[in-house]
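Example record

One chain of 258 residues, shown exactly as stored in the release files.
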Amino acid sequence: MKKSEIFISQDSFPAAFIPFLQRARLFDSSCSEEAQTIYIEGAQKAYLKISKEGSLRREMEMTRFMQEHNLAPAVLEYLSENGRDYLLTEALEGEDGIEESYLIQAERLAEVFGASLRLIHDLPKADCPFPSRSAEMIAKSESNILRKYIDDSIIPENIEKAVERFFELKHCAIDDAVIHGDYCLPNIIMKDFRLLGFVDLGTGGIGDRHYDLFWGIWTLQYNLKSDKYRNIFLDAYGRKELDPERLELSRLLAGFTQ
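Predicted structure tokens for this chain:
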């Protein structure tokens, strides 16, 4: 995870965060244009994410839900004021899945990555704060189709054919598991391949497990520059629930909603 040291006056932050910022070094660790992420290296190591007002509440609630099952960092503070959201979480003492020491052991990484996803999907759904993720993503896809939006890095084929296939498959979605929603290697934190937790949970909820499986396959190919680790990932996860049509629908949902 990239970190570049920055200097920001404490007066720029709400008072609730000042105790965490005192005598701390700050590093920009942002990976999205939609939010700024600051790594706080102080008495307590933490990450502070800042985005537009209301945009981080879902991530806060999903992180708390996952932390109750020891699969996410603790939420230290959440504020929504003056047009901004602030989410402060503890920094897990490990590295994300694109750390070089993991990437050079690609087979082991793919295996741990698959087994770790199973832990999320086996969580009890009853207390998950966000149901019906598939319906939300289908509605967003339909809206984006109307405005001719498509991520051609995920859907490289003819858009008319992709849209036709989407409408053929959209009824296949089943909200059968708690999902991460952005199951990519940068969002898993490990220590010597031992899982510590997951981050960036703002698109999680109860949805179709194939959506996470699609992103797991995608990120392994993207970050390892090869498709040969797909089967290791799926074997470690377990293939008995795998449905090719739901996996294809998940690809289309990803391409129409990103």
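Notes: The chain has two domains: 4-90, 95-257.
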